[in-house]
Amino acid sequence: MAFGERGGRGGGRGGFGGGRGGGGGGRGGFGGSGRGGGRGGFGGGDRGGRGGARGGGAARGGAGGRGRGAPRGGGRGGARGGKAGLGKGKGPGAVTLEPHKHAGVYIAKGKEHLLVTRNMTPGESVYGEKRISIASTNAEGEEEKIEYRVWNPFRSKLAAGILGGLDDIHIKPGAKVLYLGAASGSSVSHVSDIVGPDGVVYAVEFSHRPGRELIGMAKKRTNVVPIVDDARHPQKYRMLVQMVDVIFADVAQPDQARIISLNAHHFLKNGGAIVISIKANCIDSTAPAAQVFASEVNNMRKEGIKPKEQLTLEPYERDHAIVVGRYERHSGN
């Protein structure tokens, strides 16, 4: 799967777009060869507005001449900051939204191409992430602002996998997801955004300190069920979890294949999907990463999980891979 050119991370560590390795432009990018169009926009024109020239709809000034209105002393008319400049300049209108191939995930295109999810709790950040408001037209034909949250692939294995080119994450609007290794809930919150009010995320975390943060996050998100318990013993929380469509696991334990299988046996529908983040050093720090990944895939097969897809998470994570598989409940389990 293509990540873009491996070297660059696209405009600094936090930026996903623009440069050689980012979300836009490079081999694995979303858009054209650069950041799009002129220096500030995607389409025709230069730094400023949609109208082609630097300012308003006609020449540099207002509707007619070069000045800031009609005569020099008049009103500003279509001056440099006029309405015609919305959508391509530095203001909030510079950002346009495109749906990603994974339902519930979007690309916000501006100075950089950013992976975003629609905020379930507008006005609220979970871990200090950037929020973007984008104008949209509702069913009644009225314009409204919708808030999206930037999803940083350097802080989320799932986001890194999406930008890396996973064909199917199986997490979509309305899905029921069991998330093992939820930590403080930063990635869980984006999964919450994706599944929306008709879905649910059962988030399991063993450590009590991040578990407290997870519970705090879930208080504002009605589709998140926080569970502070050991994923090795799913029977302890079986009364809290219904049958789910997908298990996402980021447990980073040597016996993670067994942990996932135990939870799948209790909670995953037959034919359900499993998405596993594998950290090679946590399984065997002495073996090459590729060897660890191959061994873990074999362990998954023994547990009734049929691997369908695998990719490494570079340049976002070193010696990490994501494996996507299907669970067959009646295949010898």
| CATH fold field value of the domain at 157-327 | Rossmann fold
Query: What's the order of the H and E elements?
Result: EEEEEHEHEHEEHEHHEE
The CATH architecture designation of the domain at 157-327 is 3-Layer(aba) Sandwich
Radius of gyration based on Cα positions: 23 Å
- Segments where pLDDT lies below 50 for 5+ residues? 1-15, 17-90
Based on Cα principal axes, name the global outline. Answer: globular
The number of helical runs is: 6
How many β-strand stretches? 12
Profile the largest sheet: 7 strands, mixed
Share in β-strands: 15-25%
The CATH class label of the domain at 157-327 is: Alpha Beta
Question: How helix-rich are the residues, as a percent range?
Answer: 10-25%
End-to-end separation in angstroms reads: 32 Å
Strand arrangement in the largest pleated sheet:
8-7-6-9-10-12-11
Query: Averaging pLDDT over every residue, what do you get?
Result: 78
Structural classification: alpha/beta
| CATH evolutionary superfamily of the domain at 157-327 | Vaccinia Virus protein VP39
GO molecular function: histone H2AQ104 methyltransferase activity; RNA binding; rRNA methyltransferase activity
GO biological process, one term: snoRNA guided rRNA 2'-O-methylation
Pfam families: Fibrillarin
Biased composition (Gly residues): 9-92
Describe this structure in words.
The two termini are 32 Å apart. The protein is of the alpha/beta class and 333 residues long. The strands form 2 sheets. It has a 7-stranded mixed sheet with strand order 8-7-6-9-10-12-11, sandwiched between helices. Strands 1-2-3-5-4 form a 5-stranded antiparallel sheet. A hairpin with a 5-residue loop joins strand 4 (131-137) and strand 5. 18% of the residues lie in helices and 24% in strands. It is globular. The chain is built from 6 helices and 12 strands. Mean pLDDT is 78; it is low at 1-15 and 17-90. It has helices at residues 157-164, 186-195, 208-218, 256-267, 280-283, 289-302; strands at 96-99, 106-109, 113-118, 131-137, 143-150, 176-180, 200-205, 224-228, 244-249, 268-279, 305-312, 320-327. Among the domains are: 92-150, Phosphorylase Kinase, domain 1 (2-Layer Sandwich), CATH 3.30.200; 157-327, Vaccinia Virus protein VP39 (Rossmann fold).
